[in-house]
Specification:
The protein is an alpha/beta fold. The chain has helices spanning about 30-35, 55-65, 85-95, and strands at about 5-10, 40-45, 50-55, 70-75, 105-110, 115-120.
């Protein structure tokens, strides 16, 4: 499913000029974010994908088998512990969409049947 969505790096959505430490959406690409019904974050290192917006829409698709056109995005981030790109993405979605749907114990993989399956990750930190 996500291979059909356009992919953009997080930086494409952020303005070069940050005002007082706040994230400022880049106006030229903001429409793509506003129009998206489902948004995944994708870790560039591991390839893991995380639902960050559109949980209700995705659940409806999985429950009903709806196969109509969906406006989706994949936003590529560095999800390493020493970066805050996931936090920036969630803050951007809160500012633009009013919320985010990220859950830190959940990632998505595409199955052979092209259905998305949620996987629970360990909640313990091995540090």
């Amino acid at each position: 499913m996500t291979e059909l969505f356009p992919r953009y790096p997080l930086q494409a959505f952020l303005s070069v000029e940050l005002r007082e430490g706040q994230l400022t959406p880049e106006q030229t690409i903001l429409g793509k974010l506003i129009d998206a019904e489902i948004i995944f974050g994708r870790d560039t290192a591991s390839g893991e994908e995380y639902l960050v917006f559109g949980r209700e829409q995705l659940q409806d698709i999985l429950t009903t088998g709806m196969s109509g056109p969906i406006k989706g995005l994949v936003i590529e981030i560095d999800h390493e512990k020493d970066t805050d790109e996931l936090h920036q993405l969630c803050a951007l979605l809160e500012g633009v969409k009013g919320q985010h749907d990220y859950r830190d114990y959940e990632s998505f993989e595409e199955s052979d049947g092209d259905e998305l399956e949620a996987e629970e990750e360990s909640l313990t930190d091995e540090d």
